[in-house]
Amino acid sequence: MNKITTLFNIRYPIIQGGMIWCSGWELAAAVSNAGGLGLIGAGSMYPETLKEHIKKCKAATGKPFGVNVPLLYPQTDEIIKIIIDEKVPVVFTSAGNPAKYTAFLKDHGITVVHVIANKKFALKAIDAGVDALVAEGFEAGGHNGFEETTTMVLIPSVREVCDIPLIAAGGIATGAAMYAAMALGADGVQTGSRFVASEEASAHINFKKKVVEAGDGDTYLTLKKLVPVRLLKNEFFRQIHELEMSGASREKLAEVLGRARAKKGMFEGDTKEGELEIGQVAGLIHEILPAEKIIENLVREFNETSERMSGMKI
Asked: What's the DSSP call for residue 167?
């Protein structure tokens, strides 16, 4: 038992990322059933869709699960109400002010975790009363921090000011990386990209195949004039990158991005013109596996690393 397994009442300190278009009820339930904490990604769901996913997840697992809620969407109040009505035990918030909902959620008995990318926002989240933090490094897929602080630097930096449970995210897809994150001060890890390439992920098979085909250097942090996002390099990325290099305005970038670009790529499978959000660690992901096997591998690799390191001295 450690701080994370105790906080969430789970077997392993492994949390699945609540990724848009990839994290439906099937993945969340499979991760929770395997001993981790599964998260439903509310960012790509209308309120009624989220309600359906929560109900299906409850039916598929008797274990704790949660919902990831990006706070930047206009229907957040309705999303929060559904979470409370459905008695979801855990909420991960991101991309907004944690003070807005944390106390309200905790008053309803919900464990609240907030995702941050720097020490300043870690302190704000702690002041808001969150139960735990996710410190997400620059390696991570999807929307990212402006600072480009890597996980190896971010975790000990946040640990300096944080005495609540701390979860590391960004660049973690192996048990060895999990061990390293915990050696740096994390109490557990969150992994998103590794679970994109799972059988249960709601991502399109075309996207999953692109993830396992990716090599190191095949992702890039882009769209910094809008909201930084790490993408696989494809035709859409190259178009955006050329515009950025030529000094295109925010307005022009937003026009080219348009609407539902991430849905087009990750959910509908257009790997040329869609937005393909994934972490740098895609270069270490070589096969699509059941979520249970992914967790089994993480635990085995962690324990093997622990044994290998136990006698090491310099």
From this structure: E
Residues 239-281: pLDDT tens digits?
A: 999 998 999 898 898 888 888 899 999 999 999 999 999 999 9
Where are the chain's structural domains? 3-202+284-309, 205-281
Residues 6+ apart with CB under 8 A from 117: 135, 136, 137, 138, 144, 145, 146, 147, 149, 154
Q: What is the mean pLDDT of the chain?
A: 94
Q: Which helix (H) or strand (E) holds 169?
A: strand 166-169
Give the distance from CA 228 to its chain's centroid: 15
The SS3 of residue 136 is strand
Q: Which of 115, 100, 99 lies closest to 66 in space, CA to CA?
A: 115
Distance in angstroms (rounded) separating the CA atoms of residues 57 and 96: 26
User: What are the CA-CA distances from residue 175 to residues 7, 187, 204, 306 (Å)?
Assistant: 21, 14, 26, 9
Query: Token digits for 146?
Result: 């402006």
CATH 1.10.560.10 assigned to 3-202+284-309: no
